[in-house]
Amino acid sequence: MTAVLSEATRVRDEIVRVGRSIFDRGLTAGSTGNISVKLSDGSMLMTPTNASLGSLDPATLSHLDAQGTLISGDKPTKEAFLHTCMYCARQGDNAVVHLHSTHAVAVSILEGLDPGNLLPPLTAYYVMRVGRLPLIPYFAPGDKALAEAVGEKANDHHAVLLANHGPVVSGTSLANAQYAVEELEETAKLFLLLGNRPIRPLTPEQVQALEAKALR
Predict the structure, then answer these.
(1) Gap between the Cα atoms of 67 and 84, Å rounded
(2) What local confidence, expressed as pLDDT, does residue 3 receive?
(3) Mean pLDDT throughout 99-122?
């Protein structure tokens, strides 16, 4: 029990630190966005509902069991199901970050993109951190049907983009999930900056070589 408590204390502090960093750099605003980490006993620590990532309290983070039932802390985000469905589909992943980051949301609204892979391979780190990015059709906030749609894609993708909403990214650690969602946002920004100009993305051969070096 002591080891679990020590782990939980460390993870609580990490969630608060990452949340503040994400908020302070404008990657999510107001009370949008949420973070979770799966502990070694299968339970999860998650940011509460209506909480700003910039001012989280480690003592009030939601602690849920492996089935998503609240054990202690404040009521979890209403989007908790996004996290649980990612963990169910990706047993080896231990953290999930969901943001409403501006450029990624903008990409999720554009017409004419490939819903199976929204962004081209513009940089090496995008390929290594994110890979392919499928679009999840629009569902109203809190709609549990979104969980099924995300779960289906999560079997093959650790990063998805919710239409008119924002990215959901999982990782083997909170650091990896954070770095991946930030790389996704930067690539979305690059994509929008390039506009209709001709681009020179990485070649399929270059992408294949980078996929062997995935950082997830």
Answers:
(1) 8
(2) 59
(3) 98
**What is the residue-averaged pLDDT of the chain?**
95
Terminal alpha carbon distance of the chain: 29
Q: How far apart are CA 160 and CA 132, in angstroms?
A: 9
pTM of the entire predicted model: 0.94
Q: Is 126 a catalytic residue?
A: no
Q: Round to whole Å and give the CA distance between 117 and 190.
A: 16
For 22, the token pair is 């994400």
Q: H or E segment at 45?
A: strand 44-46
Do residues 131 and 157 lie in contact, with contact meaning Cβ atoms separated by under 8 Å?
Answer: yes
Q: ∠ CA(138), CA(65), CA(133), 5° rounding?
A: 30
Of 79, 182, 185, 186, the catalytic one is 79
User: Letter for the amino acid at 109?
Assistant: I
Q: Which of 7, 14, 87, 125 is catalytic?
A: 125
Is residue 111 part of the annotated active site? The answer reads no
Integer Cα distance of 135 and 213 in angstroms: 24
- The whole-number pLDDT of residue 23 equals 97
Mean pLDDT of 168-197: 98
